[in-house]
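Quarterly update from the structural biology core.
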Amino acid sequence: MQKLLLLALVGLGAQLVDGSLGMAYGVTSTTLLLAIGTNPAAASATVHLAEIGTTLVSGAAHWKFGNVDWKVVAKIGIPGAVGAFAGATFLSSLSTETAAPLMSVILLALGVYVLVRFTLAGLPKGNLGKPLRKRFLAPLGLVAGFVDSTGGGGWGPVGTPAILASGRLEPRKTIGSIDTSEFLVAVAASIGFIIGIGSEGVDYAWVLALLLGGMIAAPVAAWLVRHIPPRVLGSLVGGLIILTNTRTLLRSDWIDAPDAVRYAFYAAIYAVWAAAIAWSVRQHRANREEEQRVIAEAEAAAARGEEPTGAGTL
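Predicted structure, tokenized:
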């Protein structure tokens, strides 16, 4: 019962992150399941089965708040489902000894990406208005779906930054569209895993616990996406993913590092993680102060009937 409650809390926290950043539900949840010794294919299957419910609720909440571009959902979601099914089939065919460290490597890479992306750049901005084309979204969905299944997460970390970097879709609609299209990916991956490992390989009580936690958090996350500082949250989550999967790798048969080496790695990660969080908080405050300054100057200029000198800097 205690483990189920913990999983429900993990599902809640992971969905708050995912609904706010457009990524990291699967990466966060799978990382925890691997850490407690779950078979890699079963861990990914558990998370994707739970995501069927969480993504459905999350998508509905984002749609209600006007955060979804349905053309983008269709163009990226269908190829994503194909890639997810292929990835699930591939992971199911691997032995546990091979799959566990392989999944940790993928998760570690995604954690590094999330940490670096949000610590150094935050959410990228660009010129809005131009449509996202199918020739860009279809290959992106295919790759993101495959990575998502084999890594137990990755749909958001691959898809969200790519669309944000294009500058053609505002951040809230990018996050909402990625979260909504993930429903198709979760369904396809779940089918692939059930075919590959059978329903006996999945603990449905764990699925239900993750699902309940995620469903509770989904509407809150859809609202928070307009208010939470993504830069700080991304740094927090990225560091956690890096630390947990580094621990798994150093303890695996691939490396089997001695205690002194492991503790040295942990100390270095903690130091970098703390510095990243501090930098993100500092940059968030600086950006907020700059925005407030520009707005104040614009309002003062408008009151005087003048053209604001800071126009266009936001």
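Confidence is low (pLDDT under 50) at residues 310-314.
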